[in-house]
Amino acid sequence: MKNIIISTIIFLFVIMCPKAYANQYIKAEMTGFPTVNENSVSANINLIYMQLGISRLFVTASDSFIVNNEDLNIKIPVNNLYLLCDGQEFQISNNGWQKFYIDPLDITGSAQKNVNLRLENTGELPAGTYTILLRFLNRTAINLDYECDFLFTFVIDEKHSLTSFSGDPTIVLTEENIFNKQSFIRNQNDIRVDLTSNTKWKLWLATGNLDNKDCEYYFQIKNVSGKVSNYEQNNTQLFANRRYLLASGEPTLDGIDTGNKVPSNITIEYSFKNTDSDNFIKEGIRQNQFTYILERE
After folding, report:
1. pLDDT in tens, 84-116
2. CATH T-level topology, domain 20-156
3. Where does 160-296 sit in CATH, by number?
């Protein structure tokens, strides 16, 4: 008789405190990896739950923002996150439970439901790992609630690109400067380097086999725009097989919205100076190819 009483108390405890056994009644598993596009992120979720009569499924978020774990100042409003179920779209928030599915079968047993999470209208995102804790709830026919946590995680890879150049530095001696022994002879066309990056970045100049046998070569940054925060402001002499830091800056993005790219570029003037004050500069065209390297700061 004593054993029967103890068993009954344990059974009642399980029924009255279902959250202690939440994983037996509902769990959420991601199938595959999230798909990251330019303006959206999506993921497939499989919900496994126990039916006790007709079950109703709900979702909520633990926070009002999806955060970048590497930079907590980068936040995406959770209202941009939706759950898609059977062709219907439900906006997720942290202001209460959102019901998205009613199981039509009045049975007892294990069931599954595939849904899709979709983060919309993000624009291009800064690199990093983004997370938010979601909670799913299975409300059974006898109004018992069973919850499980699901950490929605996706990764935005680093992306750097130098999108255009305006040619190679070309310096031509003309009738006006061929007899000038000392002054700087400047390139005919300033070089503009356009760049994009979803991280903090540095832009380097690699000289390679610079032909400077009869003169000194220099560069000077004449103009910058966009997300350039620091740049070399001096007229700097160039030597062969060296790397020079041209500039650094912030991600070329402005907020978490569609169309948030900020054009960023650097305009460079190249020049050379005669090193032999007793002789005129040798005539001809000076053209040197340089390598520009964009990398994470």
Report:
1. 999 999 999 999 999 999 998 888 889 999 999
2. Immunoglobulin-like (2.60.40)
3. 2.60.40
Per-residue pLDDT reduced to its tens digit, 164-173: 777 777 777 7
pLDDT tens, position by position, 116-142: 999 998 888 999 999 999 999 999 888
pLDDT band (50, 70, 90) for residue 274: confident
Q: What is the pLDDT of residue 215?
A: 77
Rounded to the nearest 5°, which phi and psi values hold at 28?
Answer: -120, 130
Determine the Cα–Cα distance for residues 203 and 292; give it in Å rounded to an integer.
Answer: 7
Sequence letter at residue 136? F
The CA distance from 197 to 188, in Å, is: 29
Dist. CA 192–CA 223, nearest whole Å: 9
Q: Which amino acid is it at 179?
A: F
State how far the alpha carbon of 273 is from the alpha carbons of 107, 228, 247, in Å.
Answer: 88, 29, 24
Q: Are 150 and 70 in contact (CB under 8 A)?
A: no
280 vs 155: CA distance, rounded Å: 59
pLDDT at 226: 93
Domain boundaries, the chain: 20-156, 160-296
Report which DSSP code applies to 183: S
Q: Which residue has the higher pLDDT, 82 or 180?
A: 82
Which bin fits 23, alpha (ψ -120 to 50), beta or left (φ > 0)?
alpha
Torsion of CA 239, 244, 247, 250, to 10 degrees: 160
Q: Is there a contact between 92 and 134 (Cβ–Cβ < 8 Å)?
A: yes
Q: How far apart are CA 253 and CA 88, in angstroms?
A: 32
Query: For residue 178, what are its two tokens?
Result: 């061929």
Q: One fold for both 20-156 and 160-296?
A: yes
